[in-house]
Design brief:
With about 290 residues, the chain is mostly beta strands. The chain has a single domain, classed as Porin. It has a 19-stranded mixed beta barrel. A hairpin with a 3-residue loop joins β16 and β17. It is globular. It is found in: Mitochondrion outer membrane. Its main location: mitochondrion. Keywords: Ion transport, Membrane, Mitochondrion, Mitochondrion outer membrane, Porin, Transmembrane, Transmembrane beta strand, Transport.
Amino acid sequence: MSAQTIPVTFSDIGKSANDLLSKDFPVGLKLEAKTNTNTGVTFTVNGHRDAKTGNIHGDLKTKYTYPKNGVTFTGSWTTSNHLNGQLELENNVAKGLKLDIVTQLQPAIGQRNAKAGVIFKQPGFHSKFYIDLFKGPIFYGDAVIGHEGFVLGGEGSYDVLDGKLTRFGVAAGYNAPEYSIALRTSNSLNSYTAAAYHRVQPDIEVGAKIHWDAATNNNSNNNVTLETGVKYSLDRDTFIKSRIDNFGRLGLSYTQNLRPGVKISMGGIVETSRLNENVHRFGISLNLES
């Protein structure tokens, strides 16, 4: 990353390793169908059947985009009866500045929530600041600076009524074309994570992450989690992934683009230390887009 590049957001520091270890391992049945119109309207239907409970969850999302005016509106309705809305205004007030308003309503219980914020990004700098209007109110945000591949950022939240900082954290990383590393501390310096990613060859990617949380530290030997994984691309439309952690949880998956706009993933999580028990989870995910 050059000095003139906009750095990633705070939450995306270490994203390459996180995506390799967490994405494309379906559990249960998942379906996503997306259609795009010529007028900038996108309709998305998501469905998920929980493998453990058998319950089916879903949502219908509609997204309206007006590129000339920098306006985007997204609305969704979930099977849990949550009504969500988001209004984004980008580059209207100033270049690199986006205004964001997010609302949520649960009509059945009369609960509502809303937050408003600004996102500002320029070469070498990326920040987000929000205020939660119905909780606290609480101010929270993050900022990242970057230069020639190095990124350094911090986050925090402040409760106005209590007059105190309720959460804070810092992260640092380095991104190169073929590898990246990241260090992060969160939850008011009670949680620590280190992650690394490496594209060994054009068709082989590996990643690892180690995590320690002081809140779960009970002087046992199981308070550190270490994960490692690999992705192997069979061709440009097919890849397989595997991951395992120090608790013996083995993840396996197979993903293929059947045709343009149709992708299927199959896989699951195997508890290798409890092979004779009914604790293993498997699933399939189907993504459709037109």
